[in-house]
Amino acid sequence: MSPRIHLPSGWVTFVFTDIEGSTRLAQLLGSGYRPVLWEHRRLLRDTLAGTDGAELLTEGDSFFLAFPDAAAALTACLTAQRALSTHDWPTPEATPKVRMGLHTGYAEPRDGEYASPEVHRAARVAAAAHGGQVLCSAATARHAEPLPSGASLLDLGLHRLRGFDDRERLFQLVAPGLERQFPRPRTADAVPHNLPTQVTSFIGRETERAELDLLVRRHRLVTVLGAGGAGKTRMAVELAGGMVEAYPDGVWFVDIATVTDPGLVAFAVAAVLGLRPEPGRPMLDTLVEYAAARQMLVVLDTCDAQPAACAEVISRLLAGGSGVRVLATSRESFGLPGEVVWRIPPLSVDPQPGRTESDAVALLLDRTAAARGGRPPDWAEAGDLRRVVRRLDGLPLAIELAAARLRVLSAGQLAARLDDVLGTLDAGRVVPEPPADRGWMGNQQDTVDLVAAAAGAVPPSAAHRAVQRSATERHLTMQATVTWSYRTLGPRASRLLRWLAVFAGPVELSTVEWLLDDDPLDPLSVLVDKSMLLAEPHASGSTYRMLDPIRAYAARRLVEAGEEQAARDRHVAWSAHALERAHLGPDGRPVTLSLYALDPLASELRAALRWCATGGSARAGLRLAGGLDQWWRERGLPREARLWLFRLYGRIAETGEAIPEAELAAAYHLHSLHAGADGEFAEELRYSQRAEAAARQAGDAGLLARVLAGRAAPLIDMGQFAEAERVCREVIDWAHEQQVTGDALFAIYNLAELLWRRGALNEAAELLGAARPVEAARPVERGRRSVDMLLGMVALARGDLVAAHEHLLVALRSRMSHGYHGRACDTVNAVAVRCAAGGELSTAARLFGAAQATRAQLRATPGIYGSYWLERQAELRRVLGDAAFDAAYGEGGELGLEEAAALALAVEHPDLGADSIRFRTAGAAAPRQGGPGRQELDRRERA
């Protein structure tokens, strides 16, 4: 530097410039680099010559200048950048990208140079800039008045410059002719990350967080898979936020959803890391070289937007250096070596041990309180809130949207509306237009576009912006969320998704094959890989489950495709087939009916019935309802059964569908039984009469016998016992004449009960003995073991505890084994009477309490035994005393039916007792009716 140059003193603005990527540019241009370098120097000197700036140092591609005036310094930098950008360079790749940094501080020159920390600060400001960018410190911004015409300073926030402990506020010069969008400044932030700031609390998922944390620490590539709205992004950001200190070179979040072209994925990652393209070199190579020597965690979000490009970037990053780890979120896996796939489960809808509420309910409570201005939901809404989260399958996004609806609806109203999941959750949602200036994170795609354009890639376009808005909006409604995945499906996979919407619950592979009548493995794999279906492995094989919000979306698509009629009719056919299979063994032969086999089918059969009652065949619906005949009553659901039948009758009237008289008779007969179980005795009699009329029209003797066998039930319910007995005898005799005795079995049971009631015990026992082989020959009825139950009641009335014990436990064991819960309650009550008669008074009270609790839960009517149970309980209360009886009865009320049955089955056999009648001497007095247990009760009562 010539000593004749005047160096400013006092408040001096220092300017540093250099060419970004000069080494790579020199390698690219070879001998052509020197002319570019000289031309760059000439342009800078020409633009700075008319200013007061003093050139202190020119070395290679760098300039160091000092200005007495901050505004003049900024004007000079602006003029220089415009000259560089408008110059006609040999090729676009040869264009030098010059970064400039300014800082103003108090300095005095000595011996033709500045020995001041302000110079170093200015150099660090320049080092933080990108090619084409002009950065300045807050001190320069304060002194730079007036700014050049049309120029402004954009506040980039506080940053820690390398080598300085404090933070410096940096500003970017913005003016016409200058680039505006750049990656974050290259500064040494104390916390190197760009993770999005969350505005809501993170609820639950402690177990999942711990599991995922362990995987990320052990493996270099972990992919979080899940359906749209499952909370993948939130989980990844929450986890990564706790790992910042573990990665010296940072934790960096990249949203791939905003990337509009596969070739721009590497640019998106580079933009987040503060990298610019190097002339003549693929961006991915620059990225890999940068990451090779660093220890950092890259969080790639929504990789399913560009799966192949993401897989390439991840593979190259991991191969380029051992310090890089990747946590990706996607709706499908990459299939890369070393990839660990972790599927995020929905939020738990059942409370964990030691907790009062599940994670799903806790999230809904938190968000509902926020939606209602801080007011938590009323405790009375708790049950409906649990219904809501179960209906939404614990899907976090759906729960968040549901909470927003609770601003205008009660929890009960919301739960009632969730049959239309999408319509309810998305109601009133308005997708906003993105604001003009969205800040650095919002402008990530703009940055990627501009960086890519500088490298000769696809320029920004309106189509890119549309995709960007789509990516941003995909979590604003459930429909947009699912559409994001649906549009990536091929024809076979999308059709399978639509057709699977007709199922209400998980399906097996064989079920999918039935539905499509084709090999579904390929499209099924696609849906599982893309998280549209959840594959749940079991010992017997995997099942495939669709979350309810996805099912609602697929059902809409099914209608739009004009496929609903065909798909739902196919589902009805499958339901009928499944119902038939439940009555058959592996060899195709009838087996004893177990209602447990019908439990898993219930939701599917309800879905099929709904279609039959609204758009399908009412005749098919009547057959399905008939297949669930005993299940409705044994599960305490006779009212639901009646409602389905009423709907099917309405469908028949609407369509005029022809129903054979035999099938109508069967439906009316079942309706009568359901009405009786529901306490609607007039309706019971009315439908019994209709069933008889239709059965006579059909001319089927067996059907008529079954219908007539049920005629006694309404008479018994109305207290007309003598008439009921007459009807039973007539039906039994007629059925015997027609050789359809098995079809009159219900009349035999009713007659036996009536005989027991009036004390005709020998006749009842004889009748039941003859009925045993008939019952055993009928698989639909033998699981109930009604003959043993009734023989046990006869034995109780005779005082024969041994026979009572044996018959009742056989009946109870069979009824519990085959799922006859309502009838098992009667048997538990009968065992309670046997215990009271045998002196086991506390056990008897507990069993009475347990039976009553289950009966109340099933909403079952008392039946013919109701008054008998009450009498025995009253007698037991007198002996035990109110306090002891109530305590034991209350304990029993806390037992479930299985626990109560286990208690009853554990009752000791009477033969094992010292006072068993089988060990009495021949001269001992025979017990009177009521047995030794009754004598013991009498003795205790007298005492």
UniProtKB/TrEMBL annotation:
<dbReference type="GO" id="GO:0009190">
    <property type="term" value="P:cyclic nucleotide biosynthetic process"/>
</dbReference>
<feature type="region of interest" description="Disordered">
    <location>
        <begin position="920"/>
        <end position="943"/>
    </location>
</feature>
<dbReference type="Pfam" id="PF25872">
    <property type="entry name" value="HTH_77"/>
</dbReference>
<dbReference type="InterPro" id="IPR001054">
    <property type="entry name" value="A/G_cyclase"/>
</dbReference>
<dbReference type="InterPro" id="IPR011990">
    <property type="entry name" value="TPR-like_helical_dom_sf"/>
</dbReference>
<dbReference type="GO" id="GO:0035556">
    <property type="term" value="P:intracellular signal transduction"/>
</dbReference>
<protein>
    <submittedName>
        <fullName>Putative ATPase</fullName>
    </submittedName>
</protein>
<dbReference type="InterPro" id="IPR058852">
    <property type="entry name" value="HTH_77"/>
</dbReference>
<feature type="domain" description="Guanylate cyclase">
    <location>
        <begin position="13"/>
        <end position="126"/>
    </location>
</feature>
<dbReference type="GO" id="GO:0004016">
    <property type="term" value="F:adenylate cyclase activity"/>
</dbReference>
<dbReference type="InterPro" id="IPR029787">
    <property type="entry name" value="Nucleotide_cyclase"/>
</dbReference>
<dbReference type="InterPro" id="IPR027417">
    <property type="entry name" value="P-loop_NTPase"/>
</dbReference>
